[in-house]
Every structure is written in C-alpha cells, then in structure tokens.
C-alpha cells in the first residue's frame, strides 16, 4: 500500500536552526495559480480523484433492499395521511415519472438494511423525486421535508435510526408533490401546469462522515480566502492550508482525511470539534447573531394549499435539526401558518409546540401573515396583529415582541405606532427589502424608525442584505463590511436558511457556522458569530450598546421602497376585494355592536366576524395583495373575498334586523320582487358623521309605484330614481331650493357641462376642458390644458407585475371619450355617460354631480363622481386618470393608515424622483393656500403628483407571473373633490369615508315590529365633537366579552391631519357608561378616562386629548341600555 509514506514525503522534516547551506530552489509564490488550484478539491474535472470521490462508502438501490409502492391522488386533490393510506398502492421504481404539476403522490417505502452496516456511523435513505416531498413515519407523524432537484437547496437525505439499522428493516411513508421551490414556472414566468417529475434517487447510502467533515473544513478555509482582504495574514494562511490539504489528500488512502482535517485545525483551532455547540463561548461579545429562518411566502408562485405543505415540511425539518444541534434556534412568523399546521398536521404542530415551549422555536412578528406594508387599512393592520398576537398567546402563552416584515414592498409610517400598541413590549422591527431600492441606497442599518405620529421602534435592516443567507463566511463578514453605521452599532443579524420549500437551514449551514466561530476564536480577522440566542437577545444587545437608541441615527416617516411601484395597481380585483371587505367588516362590526346592545337574543358573532377578518388578513400577504402572484392564487383569493362578501352581508342583515326591526334593504325589494305596504325610505349610515346625500333607488317590480312617491327624481329611462337622504335635523327645505340649480347640458355637438351652485365641469372634444368653482369663480385646470384618461406604455426591466419604471412617464398618451351623452339632468342628480374605445378595450364612465355638497362642512363643494366599467384587454399598458391642476404645491398628500403622508410633486433630488408612483388609500390631494383638489377612490392604491398633474392609477396589464393579469371586466369609482381651503382645513378625509361607505337605503314599512325610532338617516350614538381633525372609525365589541360576561364597546379614534386635538367623545344618553378606559390595540387597559354628563341631554361626555396622527382606543363598559328616544 502507498498509504502513510506519502504524507511524510509531502512534509519535509522540521528544522531546528537556520542552515548554512542555501541550495533550496524556493520561488516566488504565484498566489493566483494556487488559488485556482484550490478551487479543484471538490467536484469538477478531478472529481474521480479529489475529495468528491470518497464521500460515500456504500450505496444500494436494488429492489431487494428498497421496496417502493405508490398511489397517486386524483387531480389536484391533497388527501390527508389517513385518507391516502386507505388506497391501493402499486409497485414503483426509480426513474418513474409523476405529474402533472400540482398533483400529490404517496409512497410506501420499505428498506432492508444489510446487517454488516451496523458498523457505520450513519446509514441514510436518499429520496429525490426532483420535487418537494414530506417523510412520515408509518403512523402519520411528519418527520422531515425533502427538497429534490440539484439546486443549492437540495435536501434529500433521511437518517435511518440506529435501532432500525440494527433491526435491518425500516418503513416510512412519503408524500411527493409535483412542484419545486418556486412552483412550476421558469423564474417569474407563468406556471407550466403540465410539468412532470422523475424519481431520480431512492438509495440506501452510507456517507463517509469524516470525508464530509473535511469538505466542510475545506469550504470554510476556501470562504476565508475568498472573502478576506488579500493582504491579510488569515487570508493567505487559509489559502496555504488549502494547498497543503490538497497535497496531503489521497483518495486511495482514508487515513489522509484525518491528516487533512488536522491541517485545517491550524485555523480552526486544535480540538475545536470536540467542543460541539460549546464552541459558542458566551463570554465573548458577538458581532453577528445567527438565527435560523425559513421565508415561506404564504402564496406566490404557488397557491395557499401548497404553502400548507411547505410549512409542515420545513418546520418539522427544523425540529429534527434542533434535536441534532443544541445551539440551533429557529424563528418564524405568521399565525396563519401555525394555524394551518395545527389543523392539517396535528402531530407536526405538537412537535413544534414542544420546541416553542423549550425556547428553541421562536414565533416572531405577531401578525397573521407577513402582510403588505402599504395597502392594508389601519384597522386591518391592527387586526393582523390582534388576531396574530391572540393566536400566539392562546397556543404558546407568549406574545411576539419583534415585528417582522423582511419582504414587504415598502413600509407605511403608521406601522411604528401600531407595533408599539400591539403588545406593550413590542419595540423591535426587522426588515430587509429596502436593500432592493433601484435609485438610492438606504443610509442606515440599525436605526430608530419614527412613524408619522412620532412613535419610534428599533429597526434593523440586516447588512447581509438577505433573509435567505447561506451561513457562509461571506454572509457573516458582510454583516460587518456592509453595515452602514458601525460607528453607532456594530452588530448584525444573520437570518439564514432556505425559504419557500427549501426547508430552512441545512445541516451544513449549522456545521459551517461552528467552523466560522472556531476560526473567530483564533483570529480577530473573523467576526464573532453567535448562536443559541434569539432575535430579541440581539435587539436587547443593541439597546444596551446604544444607550437605548440614543446614539443611533433616526429615520422619520415611511420606509418607501424605491422598487415594485406597480404593485399598488396590479390585479385590480384583489385591490377591490381588499377595500370592499375592509369596509364591509367595519360596517358589520358597528351594526353587530348596536344589535348586541339593543337586540333581544342577539349575540355578537365574534367567531363569524373573525373568520372573515382572517380571510382578509390572509389575502393581505405581501405577494397576494400587491398583485405579484400567479393566477391560481387570485382564484383562491377571489373565492375568499366572495365568502367574506356573502357572510358579511348576511351578518349585516341579521344585525340590522336585530337592531332596528323589519327594515327591508332596497336591494332585496328588487331582488325578491317584494310588494311594499305604506312606509318610508330610510338610510343606515355606518359612518359616525352626519350626512346628506342623494341615493339611487332601482325602480322595478311590484313596488315601483310605491317607491315613486318617495323619490325626487326619476331617471330618464325610468329604471331608477333618486332620493334625498337628509341627516341634518335642522336642514329643513334648504336642500330642495339648492337642488334646483343642478344641471347637465349639451352645447353644440361635443360640449357637455355638469353644473350646480358650487362646481361646474366641462367636457369638450372628449376631454375635460374646465373644472370651475362657481362660488369663487375660479378655473381649477391649467389654462390650455385638458384632463381625463391617459395611457402609458408599461414595460418594466424585469419584475413585470411588480414594477413600473420612471421612463413610462415618457410615453404619456392622452385619451378622448369618443361618445358622450346626457344621462340625468336634475333636480338632484345630473350625469353624463362617456365611452372610450382603445384598440382592444372599452371604457364606459358615468360622470355625475349631485345637488348636495360632499359634507356638512361650511363651504364644502360637491364632488364629481366617475363610475367606470372597463373591459380591459391591453397588454403592458397603464391606464390612469389625470387633471392638470392650477394649484402650486411642493408636496401632495396621500392617505395612509390613520393619517396621511406628504410626498414631493417635484423631482429635485433622486430621492424625490424615485417617488414617481406612490401608494394612497381613499384619497390623494394637492393644495395651496386657500384651495385644493382631492381625488377620492373606492378601490385603487396607486397615485402620483407629477408637477401640477395629479394622477390616479387605474389599470395595468403585466404578463408575469400571471399571464392574464387584469384581463377582462373591471368596475371601479373615483371622484374629484375641490375644496375652498387648504387640505389641512378641508373635509377630504371624511368625504373619502363617505365615498367608501355609501348609505344603506332601506324601506321601513309603517306597520310591523320596529324597535327604534327612525330618522331619515340613522345617527350613531357615538360621536366626536369639538375637533374636526379627529375621526371615529371603528366601533366593535370587546374581544373577550362573551368569555368574561362583560358588555364593552371598543372605539377606534384617531387624529387624521397631523396636529393636536382636544375632543369630546359623546355617547347618547340611552347607553349608560360604567367605566371608560384607553387601551392598547389588544384592548388591554392603559388608563382610566373621566366621564361627565351633559346636563340638557343626559349624554355621556368623555374628554380626549390627542396628538398628531395618534390612534386612541377607548373601551367603554356599558351598564344599562335603554331605547333611544
Ligand atoms: Zn416574501
């Protein structure tokens, strides 16, 4: 045998002194050649000779040893373990193919392990179906996931327990699923729904564990020489050692492996391996905190049902790793994912729960899902956390203290306040996505993030620039070299592990980190990485080091992502579903609260309401609501919105009936062809502000004659009527008089004018040529310019559904209505119908103006309403509505959660220019001293102010990852609302609430069991007075009232303009208040509120002081409920 001698030859004898004789032919080290050579120790052209040739000692796949049988579930069905086991399995073999995409296949695997193999350190089964799979024991307990294929995330090995090796027999069950990590498409292209997958590996294998360990040693040395500066001692040393290892290794001499590993100890430290997890000496200060993570997008290039499998596979895999690596800690977010595991994989959930309770598996984030950070309403963001935190508390007895949105496409400035109020301790925040900015580099790594109201959280954006780190030395070192404010904080979070079906950290990541730490214990060139701690430990360390944030830089306002700006508009259906559901649930909660107080035998339907909220929150996931998922996801999402609409409407109907008796929704009168007896029209107003509006009444069926008596205007075609719903007790006949001035008229062939006493709009040649304030006699459009619809080419550089790029603005093309007709002309509603034809699409818009102003605010103007029906078949085109406004302002205002954000109208700097397309909620506005114009909308989220052009983004048409994005029918509405004040004194926010929560028109028969007195427009018993900047939005029952047998009402109040307020909450006298508290968003008491009684009315008055954009939750305990007078 060659064996030991060679190694002795390779290393010359050690000298004891400097020799006299200088005959050595030593040469200058050609470092680049050594470096190239060192890259050849594993794989590559020398793989039959290098380390790769000795990684396996045994491998068998003969069916004598590996017995396989399979059952394929029909279609895309996803049976449970028990259901699958009831079927007939048929024999299968390596090389068989399975498909098509999204199908599930169950395997029974019986392994016969040769008796001689008990001598080996490890025997494993390798199963590679080239797709994702889950291994169960024969009783149905999930053991671990499989990630097939040849990518870096490959995980196909399953360790056969030693007892089974000894017994010589081992049985398992596997479910393989025909999709990969990123679904079944090519990158972000639409899915290939006919992909088939081959069973490439089903082998019993004995790995040469020492050879694998040498590979890890060597890789660490390689990473050191690749990533450290070239003139550093450790970099050169690492390269020299690689060279030495290559000289020492012989693939025909197993003993050289140990010699090679000994060489690696020159950098890793002598005997480092025997320390095991104790290598992480806690007495040394850490620079890098490692935490395992698995970013499982709740839906993206695959549907929700596939995510459920990914979760179960990934998390059970991590439980297994925790049993093998004591230092391993794993964090994951999303209560929804835990709930799926609990419902669908109870045994897997139990294993996870045990690790949570043992402090190793760390729930983080506190939210229902990792939601979009821009578009959910304020109340929805609260529910994300309320549902999430309550779930974590109920299952694990813990609440999350670190908010976690690593991948959301920008983060609203309302979030810090919401985070801090969702659990008293929540003050940490982790994110990462801003490293994707395509214009400016975000300047901080660790900083105080202060929201629009002044609340701050401690924010860390990992300088590793990924939440899928591979735990290499390069990742670890980037935690320092890419850190943007080392002067104030020198630590970083290393969030490592493969997401989306990669199963989280691989064992070799944990092995590598031990080696990197071992090296750090030897040399200061290697940053100290620490394991075995939590994300919270990391933040606590920052707090200590920075005097609780004092020495950190601060970022004020939103964290705007300079990327993915198309996501405010992509997939109109999901945006509409989101807005309509949020509004519906707000209405349901208010009416259900009132019904629960007044209604006999009516119980507040917590579970049914929260089921709806869970669906809405789920669809707010950061690839669903933004419109960046595949088409299948939107089929699921629309189904969920359909359920919310159905259940919400039913809940609303039940609650109205319990609250107010036999009111008949006007829609039901038509749908059910009801014959009405005498009675009157009333309107249920769910907004806690008085209002007066024109409503539309359909006139069909047996009740048309009866209803005609209740209306003031019949439509030209006789199918509809308009009635005035007046919620001002003192208005008298004022409105009738004003209403007479409203008009729609035609001048010549192509000029149409809508006008009332305060506003007028002219359309000429199919374009809006004038928007005129009749009272101030002021033209609001820039002279010589026109407004209307406009279309742009929309061809982003790569991320199709995600991105619209600044250059799209260069392709602006104004569109003209080809046909305009008069539709209604007073006395309370005037309207035009306008049509526009594009090469492949049709846009029909009804433009209307009512006699009433938008609100009761003095000087309020009427809004001009646009109701659009679009049949959309463009590709890569972007439709917007724009007006060139004769208003000068450096900033425009856009509604965000519980307030607004101002953004530049100019492009002075690259930071300003980057905000060429931004997110808005129900309104956006451009104002100068004394005047402004707002756009309101009912389901759109993209807007911009490009100089004096204000634009609302309406429809896009990307083709990846959904080839059919936005193709087909759309309905949406927007309005133009001029106001004769600056935005700050305007009625825009409340008008936007009205626009989104239309009055519910009902018919109240004279006879029948009416419970309550009925004014024309229902008036809420809760109102805020004395501060026009304070809005009461949500009214609901206390979360635990039923359990605690309490009668509590929770009110969400906020300051909407950005200033202080001293307001009074008035509660009508028929509700007696026992106690009043302010609470956090989890409805836990903060402080008591003083109540007083209004002498004349007996109403309860509660004084509230608020600061700019403050969210105030008030909890009232009701002691007695009487009938309102
Ligand atoms: Zn994501």
UniProtKB/TrEMBL annotation:
<dbReference type="GO" id="GO:0030246">
    <property type="term" value="F:carbohydrate binding"/>
</dbReference>
<dbReference type="InterPro" id="IPR011330">
    <property type="entry name" value="Glyco_hydro/deAcase_b/a-brl"/>
</dbReference>
<keyword id="KW-0378">Hydrolase</keyword>
<dbReference type="Pfam" id="PF07748">
    <property type="entry name" value="Glyco_hydro_38C"/>
</dbReference>
<dbReference type="GO" id="GO:0006013">
    <property type="term" value="P:mannose metabolic process"/>
</dbReference>
<feature type="domain" description="Glycoside hydrolase family 38 central">
    <location>
        <begin position="562"/>
        <end position="641"/>
    </location>
</feature>
<dbReference type="GO" id="GO:0004559">
    <property type="term" value="F:alpha-mannosidase activity"/>
</dbReference>
<dbReference type="Pfam" id="PF01074">
    <property type="entry name" value="Glyco_hydro_38N"/>
</dbReference>
<dbReference type="InterPro" id="IPR027291">
    <property type="entry name" value="Glyco_hydro_38_N_sf"/>
</dbReference>
<dbReference type="InterPro" id="IPR028995">
    <property type="entry name" value="Glyco_hydro_57/38_cen_sf"/>
</dbReference>
<dbReference type="GO" id="GO:0000329">
    <property type="term" value="C:fungal-type vacuole membrane"/>
</dbReference>
<dbReference type="InterPro" id="IPR041147">
    <property type="entry name" value="GH38_C"/>
</dbReference>
<comment type="function">
    <text>Degrades free oligosaccharides in the vacuole.</text>
</comment>
<comment type="similarity">
    <text>Belongs to the glycosyl hydrolase 38 family.</text>
</comment>
<dbReference type="GO" id="GO:0046872">
    <property type="term" value="F:metal ion binding"/>
</dbReference>
<dbReference type="InterPro" id="IPR000602">
    <property type="entry name" value="Glyco_hydro_38_N"/>
</dbReference>
<keyword id="KW-0326">Glycosidase</keyword>
<dbReference type="GO" id="GO:0009313">
    <property type="term" value="P:oligosaccharide catabolic process"/>
</dbReference>
<keyword id="KW-0479">Metal-binding</keyword>
<dbReference type="InterPro" id="IPR011682">
    <property type="entry name" value="Glyco_hydro_38_C"/>
</dbReference>
<dbReference type="InterPro" id="IPR037094">
    <property type="entry name" value="Glyco_hydro_38_cen_sf"/>
</dbReference>
<dbReference type="InterPro" id="IPR015341">
    <property type="entry name" value="Glyco_hydro_38_cen"/>
</dbReference>
<feature type="region of interest" description="Disordered">
    <location>
        <begin position="1"/>
        <end position="23"/>
    </location>
</feature>
<protein>
    <recommendedName>
        <fullName>Alpha-mannosidase</fullName>
        <ecNumber>3.2.1.24</ecNumber>
    </recommendedName>
</protein>
<dbReference type="Pfam" id="PF09261">
    <property type="entry name" value="Alpha-mann_mid"/>
</dbReference>
<dbReference type="InterPro" id="IPR011013">
    <property type="entry name" value="Gal_mutarotase_sf_dom"/>
</dbReference>
<dbReference type="Pfam" id="PF22907">
    <property type="entry name" value="Ams1-like_1st"/>
</dbReference>
<dbReference type="Pfam" id="PF17677">
    <property type="entry name" value="Glyco_hydro38C2"/>
</dbReference>
<dbReference type="InterPro" id="IPR054723">
    <property type="entry name" value="Ams1-like_N"/>
</dbReference>
